[in-house]
Amino acid sequence: MKDNKLHLNKSAGHQVPEGYFDKVEDAIWDQANLSSKITTPGFEVPSNYFESFDAKILRKVQTQEFANPKITPFWTRQTTFYAAGIAATIILLLGLFLNSKDSLDFNDLETVSIESYLSEEEFTDQDLAALTTEDYLLFDGFNETNIPDATIENYLIEHSSLDDLEYISEP
Amino acid sequence: MISEQDLIVQLKSERTKEQAFKELLSQYKERLYWHIRKIVISHDDADDVLQNTFIKVYKNIHNFKGESQLFSWMYRIATNESITFLNRKAKFLKASSEEIQQQAINNLKADVYFEGDEIQLKLQKAIALLPQKQQLIFNMKYFDDITYREMADILETSEGALKASYHIAVKKIEKYLSSN
What we know:
The structure holds two protein chains of two kinds.
Chain A: E1 7-8, E2 15-16, H1 20-37, H2 49-67, H3 77-99, H4 111-120, H5 125-131, H6 140-143, H7 149-159, H8 162-169
Chain B: H1 4-12, H2 17-40, H3 43-60, H4 70-92, H5 97-106, H6 118-128, H7 132-142, H8 148-155, H9 159-179
Helix pairs in contact in B: 1-2, 2-3, 2-4, 3-4, 4-5, 4-8, 5-6, 6-9, 7-9
């Protein structure tokens, strides 16, 4: 038991570890013996060493300061993150704007879309006639086309009936 | 003499740093020199370590947070620099730091900067036989009379452990001196 190892001073209630007084006596005795023999380690320094030390060390720290001047880096980790963020945003916005087309032309329409539009909408003859004003649909163009008589003859034999011939024969 | 708090403030200001550093040198250079000298033994080595210590103090004063006394902080730097110096020297010479220390003690007799008598030389031999931490504790208490509280701050050890280590060290040294 811990308490049994302690000496009890009944008058004040203070306690000391067991064997403390023997140990402290030894410690005091050893210390006294030693200090009676030796008080200093016996080392010496060259004359004027401490007097000249200040100038030597000041010269050294100043040389090192100039050799390694304090530099505040522009590209700290924080500024790099900010710059990268801004650059990424600009690239993203530019990409969006440059890739988007402001106007569509006829080639952008799909054939299916045109077909469905034509089938759903109603056109009058005037609407269709308006298309013929285009230069490439002028009748002059037909005059320039040379179709051989034999081709016309063959076409009429294959595709026409007697009824059709009635119309042709009319003046 | 300027107070420690004022000295720290001045050391941290670029405008007053140099003047405050001069004050720091004048207050602590001798105490730190003797502390280092007892660890590395030779004057030339102590001079090197003392210079490194003050350069480190100058460069790192802005990191000093005032959690301990300036004196304790500087002593800690000096102690670490001395031990690092011994270890580096041992590595360079491919020997242990104990062997390096023994070698330094053997060279003391021929050292022009050692004026000790026979008993002082024996004391150095006895100290060199102690474990490194006991050596530090013994030197700081016996020769420099640093309090256990300050020593606990410098060596980051409890006061109780320091007291026990010191008494063990004294006992070993006394025994060595009596038997040799």
